[in-house]
Design brief:
The complex is a heterotrimer of chains A (113), B (166) and C (247).
Chain A: H1 7-35, H2 45-53, H3 55-82, H4 88-112
Chain B: H1 12-18, H2 56-87, H3 89-98, H4 102-129, E1 133-134, E2 137-138, H5 141-162
Antiparallel strand pairs in B: 1-2
Chain C: E1 3-12, E2 22-31, H1 36-46, E3 66-69, E4 72-75, E5 88-91, E6 98-100, E7 103-104, H2 107-115, H3 137-144, H4 154-158, H5 160-164, H6 171-181, H7 189-196, H8 210-214, H9 221-241
The chains are: A mainly alpha (113), B mainly alpha (166), C alpha+beta (247).
């Protein structure tokens, strides 16, 4: 029996889980305020352009989105299995590809700013 | 061989007479009429699509796992936000307006609950995944999780402040 | 002493004659402070001598009287009747084949436990003349909690991932591997990693945490398994990204 290569999947999942825990609740809160009609000044076009235009901003945005997407994709894969869906390979491929595509799109949009 | 359980005891009388003390394995009795004898060990299969209804702890676990659906969907929303930000001011402001729809507000409520539940379960788990031994003793688990909660609150306040909420 | 009429619904199965299991209802007068095992013993002694179940120590040490009590894996010697109302449902441990009534076949667990080499593998042979292995209290404490496992298999009955994927090596075996990996006298981690970091090993765990909730010895297998995941990930990155495999 050989050691599994699962750490390639699991380690970014764990990193992403930590990122989600620390960052996503407050980010949801910010866009929730915008949804309620109160757009925080930091979410205005000029502030967001300035933030996403900086190197650190790009890195932070990409890191949070890419890791959160990966973590969610992996957890959803396990959830599908827990719900009795036995096509694990197919589910895994679809979800990991979707997370990868989302990360590439994030990088592309960031480079345009 | 997934078999339903019969809640009555159709054969209890016969069995209790036949097996005596019932501890030792007795010589196999001849199969009785109308019954399949010698079925061997019974595999009681777990229902693969509904096992989590068996105990509240499994429902709590499934709730934790399902948060990923809302968090994942919210990340897709963030990618769309980024797309509109890259496309220019008009596009970004149109995006901010679409956030005001009732569907969006409902989704935000669900995403917020999911993200908070994820955060709480994650921080509670840190003490299990990363115990810290200082000298002889282990640092109390609640201190490790508590430190994460404190850091989380501080970080959230800083981000809200930087975003101009207060 | 106070007495109480206790009603139990016990799963019955006789492999020689039954094609299916069924529940049998018993009513038995018990002392207020008795445990479920006492009730079963009284049933066996006074009502139905054909009832089969395993037990030995009656003090939560031997780990042989595990059964599902109202759907929860418990040691029946450690489960007090006073904590229950109405009919108490007693079934054999889930996820294991039922041999007879409440007796399950532990073979799968034993095989897995053997596979993870749950014993000290010294770093190099050491003759007795060189004296004993010495260990500081801190080194002992590092793994002590994981030595408390009594192999009762309640964690396997609680683990849904073991039920869904029976190849999974499971909570107790991986926790015991971790126990020896954490021992300063041991040098066998590489051998055990081949088993517990394999596909059937720790990666089947999704951290449900049920194992730790039901563990009567407070081993906290869920904690052991998460630690093994982190350590195995670090191994992997060392082996694949560092020159010379990080050795």
């Amino acid at each position: 029996m050989a050691k599994s290569n699962k750490p390639i999947i699991w380690f970014p999942f764990a990193a992403g889980g930590t990122v989600i825990a620390f960052f996503i609740p407050v980010i949801v809160l910010l866009t929730f305020l915008a949804a309620l009609g109160y757009v925080p000044t930091g979410l205005s076009y000029d502030s967001m352009r300035a933030f996403a235009g900086s190197g650190l901003g790009k890195l932070l945005i990409f890191g949070v989105i890419a890791l959160s997407l990966w973590s969610s994709a992996h957890r959803l894969r396990c959830t599908c299995y827990d719900f009795g869906l036995r096509a694990d390979k197919l589910v895994a491929n679809v979800l990991y590809l979707a997370a990868g595509a989302g990360s590439i799109a994030t990088a592309v949009f960031l480079l345009r700013i | 061989m997934s078999k339903p359980l019969v809640s009555a005891g159709p054969s209890q009388g016969g069995d209790s007479h036949k097996l005596g003390a019932g501890v030792a394995r007795e010589p196999q009795p001849p199969p009785r009429e109308g019954r399949m004898g010698g079925a061997g060990p019974l595999i009681r299969e777990v229902p693969p699509t509904s096992w989590y209804f068996r105990h509240p702890r499994y429902l709590r676990y499934m709730a934790r796992e399902i948060t990923s659906l809302f968090v994942g969907a919210y990340c897709v929303l963030l990618v769309i936000a980024l797309q509109s930000l890259a496309a220019g001011q008009a596009s970004y402001e149109a995006f901010l307006l679409t956030l005001r729809s009732p569907t969006s507000i409902a989704f935000h409520v669900l995403a917020l609950v999911a993200a908070l539940y994820h955060a709480a379960t994650w921080f509670n788990a840190t003490q299990k995944a990363m115990p810290i031994q200082l000298g002889e003793e282990f640092v109390p688990g609640n201190l490790i999780s508590g430190a994460h909660y404190v850091a989380w609150a501080a970080l959230s306040i800083v981000i809200l402040f930087l975003a101009g909420v207060f | 002493m106070k007495e109480r009429l206790v009603q139990l619904e016990v799963l019955r199965y006789n492999p020689d004659t039954d094609t299916d299991a069924y529940f049998q209802h018993y009513e038995v007068v018990c002392q207020e402070e008795w445990v479920v095992l006492d009730a079963l013993n009284k049933i066996k002694e006074t009502i139905d001598p054909t009832l089969n179940y395993r037990w030995s120590c009656h003090m939560a040490v031997c780990g042989s009287c595990g059964m599902m009590i109202n759907g929860d894996p418990k040691l029946s010697c450690h489960t007090f009747l006073r904590d229950y109302e109405g009919v108490i449902r007693v079934e054999p441990l889930t996820h294991f084949p039922v041999e007879r009534d409440l007796v399950t076949a532990p073979d799968d667990f034993i095989e897995k436990l053997t596979r993870v080499k749950p014993y000290l593998i010294p770093k190099k042979p050491k003759p007795i003349s060189e004296g004993e292995y010495r260990q500081t209290p801190a080194q002992l404490k590092r793994y002590h909690q994981f030595t408390l496992c009594i192999n009762c298999m309640l964690c396997y009955a609680a683990c849904p991932e073991y039920g869904l994927t029976p190849k999974f090596i499971g909570p107790a075996a991986i926790s015991l591997a971790h126990r020896y990996n954490q021992d300063s006298r041991d040098g066998g981690r590489d051998e055990r990693q081949e088993i517990i970091a394999s596909k059937e090993g720790v990666w089947e765990c999704t951290f449900v945490g049920a194992c730790s909730e039901v563990c009567p010895a407070h081993v906290d297998p869920a904690s052991a398994l998460q630690q093994v995941k982190i350590a195995s990930s670090i191994d992997w990155f060392k082996e694949h990204l560092l020159p010379g495999g990080g050795k």
